Task: structure prediction
Amino acid sequence: MTAFYRAAPWLVLALMLAAAPARAASGPPSGFVLTDDADLAFTSPDGATKLEQYMKDGGNWDVKWQVWARHGDRMTELKPEQGYGAGFRFTSDSQWLVRMQKTGSGEQDLFLYHVENGAFVSATRKSLSDLAWDYFHSRPDTKTMKLDYHISANLMKGTEDAYRWLGVDWPNNRYLLISLSGEMDKHPKNVAVKGLADWKCRYDLKTGKFDVPAMFAKGNADALNWEIKR
Result:
């Protein structure tokens, strides 16, 4: 009986080690190769975080891309995995990051990340683009518009300096300006292309809510009636 109790601590330790979860991966899995395209490498304004994009070509058009944020000796994947490389913009305080993700010909999604415990993690349950489209379809003036292809959400330039080029005096690191576009299958025969062109809204990083500043009212009205005649 005494011998059993002497061995028990070692047995308990072995069981604990066996039951412990595997250590998280510190980088991309086998088969993913770091791209040498300088346009796909990004560094946060404070220089602390570098974004690395890795590609795996499985053949037969099966291409996968992963984005990893390197912070010191720590690496964190910015999900989700996608079929194309992506563009990124940081806020000037290096606390927020927007991913501009091509998803197909003329189509793009946006994903929002925020720093938590020293690493970038997804900041919203849905993609930022899905949230922007939800807001678009919730409004009385836009809720009935149906778009069929080339559906794209774009982050307007100026994230880093609070859009000063627009002549506004908004707080730093507070807002994101998003432009929505898309096209319709059904339109008159004398029209080559019809749809939505450059409809703008603003996302508040502090409250998580959207609005449309008055300065965009006229442009948005024009965007709802966009078409190219034959």
Notes: The first strand starts at residue 33 and ends at 34.
